[in-house]
Amino acid sequence: QLQLVESGGGLVQPGGSLRLSCAASGFSLDYYTIGWFRQAPGKEREGVVCINSGDGTTYYVDSVKGRFTISRDNAKNTVYLQMNSLKPSDTAVYYCNAQRFDSNYWGQGTQVVVSS
Asked: For residues 99 and 54, what is the distance between their CA atoms, to the nearest angstrom?
């Protein structure tokens, strides 16, 4: 079965950190562009960051630059999102996405709540 599974979400205080994981099964992430998206209550899903499969180039939305870092471990077939200096505005369900040509996979999402 081809799937992506996110983990690592939870409740954290403002200024805290979390590391999200996105593990693939049934296919290799090596040749896929991987993106992290998020959807806050009442808002549309937005792209947060992506990493290219070839040269590893990354693209971050302005609101997370300097705070979030995406990385990939092809040996573990997993992509990570390190989130530091979290803000209440980062509260959302976070999804990972793997895309290559006409193949497009989504995980089920992991909830992140930033609150004191």
From this structure: 13
What are the residues whose beta carbons fall under 8 Å from the beta carbon of 81, sequence distance 6 or more?
19, 20, 22, 36, 48, 49, 68, 69, 70, 94, 96
pLDDT tens digits, one per residue of 65-97: 999 999 989 899 999 999 999 999 999 999 999
Residue 109: which of 3, 2, 6 has the closest Cα? 6
Residue 34: strand, helix, or coil: strand
3-state secondary structure of 87: coil
In this structure, are residues 51 and 72 in contact, taking their beta carbons and an 8 Å threshold? yes
Choose among 112, 110, 108: nearest CA to 25.
108
With tokens 């079965």, the residue in question is 1
Query: Tell me: the pLDDT tens digits for 19-40?
Result: 999 999 988 888 899 999 999 9
